[in-house]
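Can't paste images in this forum, so I'm doing it all in text. The chain is below; anyone willing to post the predicted structure tokens underneath?
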Amino acid sequence: MKLHTLIHFLVLKRVDGDEHTEITNIEIDSRRVTPGSLFVCLSGYRTDGHEFVAEAVNNGAVAIMSEKKLPALPSGVVSVIVPDTKRVLPMLAHAFFGLPSQKLRLIGITGTNGKTTTAHMIEHIMDKTGHKTGLIGTLHMKIGNYREKTQNTTPDALKLQRYLKRIADEGGEYAVLEVSSHGLEMGRVTGCRFQTVVFTNLSHDHLDFHHNMESYRNSKELLFTRLGNGLDPAQIAVLNADDEASQYYANRTAVQIITYGIHGHSDIKATDIRLQGTETRFRAVTPWGKADLQLKVPGLYNVYNALAALTACALEGLPLQAVKDALETFEGVDGRFQEVSAGKEFKITVDYAHNPGGLTAALQTARQLTAGKMICVMGCRGERDRLKRPLMANIATAFADFVFFTSDNPSSEHPADIFEEMKPGLASAQPSSWEFVIDRREAIHKAIQMAGREDRVVITGRGHETGFVTADQVDLFSDADIAKACAEQHNKENVHMISDI
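Text version of the structure:
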């Protein structure tokens, strides 16, 4: 695309150089610049793209977009100065990749917890009913047999539009997108044309970024206020009627609203809920009829997730029976209440729960499924919301019989310092009901060694993640793999003890 075509819509800009320069790529990371690229300088929280212009030029950038005048650029490199590169970037991405969200039916999911599972449920239903569907979220971007690991729940504007284009080019009809509060605040989904947006719930999280719950709630408001200001009758907001934030969002969107819930009034409602082991049964009462569902995933929170997914898919015209049949074959998501093989005596569950609401839901469900003791392994992340640390410590000791507090991606913080900020939440806990073990592998090992017949070890905080982040490195570390190895070692030791007898 010619540079002048790419930037013609910008009212405020200063261009020095040939506007007919051919642009073959757009990048915000100077290390990823290829010959023919437009490099956009973004001022971030830790780095400033303006400091990496020389590297971008050395890697082949033919144009630089910045917010200020730069030192003299080499001959042939065009300078484009705009007031706000962060605001301009989504517009450039949409234009460069050919407005891909307008070629797809885009379904967005936002909320503190449940985004990933709900998004995967929707993608599963769509694929099972013959609709080729792409998925972009916390675990990966996927379309058909193609998968690409993602770094953020909602990718930056460039990656997002690149992913959407790939989904459209692969013949995708739908795209399901997890929309984080960070993604909304940072303009990553600006300009995307959503067909339907779903709100799951709002609870304490990310206050390191948003500072308070009101600001956190308001960040998610952006998804609803930008939806359907043209009164498009086809665009719909799907809201959890049991969460008080839903009314706030309902008052701030112009589109049709449909609600789902369990308590009180809602348009789609779950009744006759039965939580039976690792299965969940309920009746969905909807405007399209009633359906009795038997899910393969446990917990009341998965009733909410299933209702949200059912609603989003039924709004696309899928028959209720087909949605029911597809949901009943959904087997869950890696790292979301994932059972790890541990032999017959006890159970091991790995869950991503990394905030108070998620931890409560995971441990409540685990308690319902556990006849014996429940042993929890958990920690709080470094350089993240510090206010939730004592809250999570309190929740863990309230539900579990014993808790091993440990490290969880401490980044530049020392794990012992993080634990000191968790300790006020242990004021009402018995000192004999918890232990701090700084090494996560050792904590998992100790928990499994403690487990006996009919007990359950619940390892929370990391779920699907395989990278353990410290101040100067990222180590390969999977909670599920470590737990499985520890369980196998535990079982072998028990066999040797029995044979010795």
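Residues 338-497 form a domain with the Protein-Tyrosine Phosphatase; Chain A fold (CATH 3.90.190.20). The longest strand covers residues 268-276.
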